[in-house]
């Protein structure tokens, strides 16, 4: 609805009931608060993701991206930056990382990524992220409304028309969030209940992994334990039911497999018939032939093609998969997930290698032609070393002279200005584009980038401020850069909502309003 139509609707609702209530003020407040609930957000953003997925199917150059955010303010500043630099939020999402919740948002204090943090902190962060994004809308629209008032006061019809058009075409900061539910924090019922809370907070896309919930590990740590497919599929169905119950019919489920790096399982899958999904899962178990004479006390046996086999069981009571079966298990995981309610895949890998990812996706697409991935461009990878080694190996295969390089030491600064380093950096630069085209990756994310940026920027400030630079360390390294680069947050009172509060005071009290944004507000030192 246009600004004019919204104002007219508001006028109709208040007349002739109340004096002192202005229809145009109501219209402005409604436009500044477009989303009345988290479910409104979930439905709106799910539709965005569905359109983006269809666009990617038609053209892999239309891949999408996100950065992980551990606080609403970080998410807000990210989307403000994207709108400022690119003029649109199209194709840019947010990622909610369970790793960062564990490390930064748990009441227990910093925790490893092992599902030990409070499950309620996940929907709480979703709600916080959207609270800050909605505030970004209200702040930016409030600025446009002030400009509109000035244009009208000046009798500038052209600028008035331009601003009305800009308000009508306003693009919200609210974008899809892909939210990490870990391994579901319990059984399928627990997964369903938590998924509902996440969706009610605004999540349109929920990512769930096939690890044992009470043994869950970070995707880039050792000791990962997977569950049989039927256990995982029950949780996928639980999430789908949560979406459908709440009327978010286009909700997205991202099924993550950790099988590539998981060599253990807690259970032998139940099998009904030869070749069923349980039998396929068990076929990857590392087993040895046995006969009755060699049975040990308490041994567990499985029958395979008429033979008794003893799965290798560890003192932890976990069973071991055969070495080298990780890719085959990943492919089976992905196919069964897509056949049972999932929309997108996530294959957790140990390195960013397009050939490895693309090889698995090609096998999956033999069964599910439009299969596509969400991929973790993880800070756990040493991107510099990985890609320099990939270039080294490629050049070795080409027969090039590499005597000037030591493959094991390619991270060294001594190589930074070399041809090999330049080629590696170019491959890193184009990795997302190339992987989207060659490996079926629809969405690229970095799980915990803002964890690292916060640490790096704080280190730089502390080094300068507490050292010889003193206050110049802050002014030169932070404030001056904010001013030069047009960072809106340099006016921190405005960013925190001071001007919006003044607008409301004006609505509520008129000339009697005691406003903060007068001539003596020090934020005026930063006027554009």
TrEMBL record:
Q: Which GO terms describe its biological process?
A: carboxylic acid metabolic process
Task: Detail which positions bind Mg(2+).
Answer: 180
Note on how the cofactor is bound: Can also use Mn(2+) ion.
**What does it catalyze?**
D-threo-isocitrate = glyoxylate + succinate
Q: Which residues form the active site?
A: 218 (proton acceptor)
Pfam families in the cross-refs: ICL
PANTHER family (UniProt xref): BIFUNCTIONAL GLYOXYLATE CYCLE PROTEIN (PTHR21631:SF3), ISOCITRATE LYASE/MALATE SYNTHASE (PTHR21631)
Protein name, as recorded? Isocitrate lyase
Organism encoding this protein = Novosphingobium umbonatum
**Origin organism lineage:** Bacteria, Pseudomonadati, Pseudomonadota, Alphaproteobacteria, Sphingomonadales
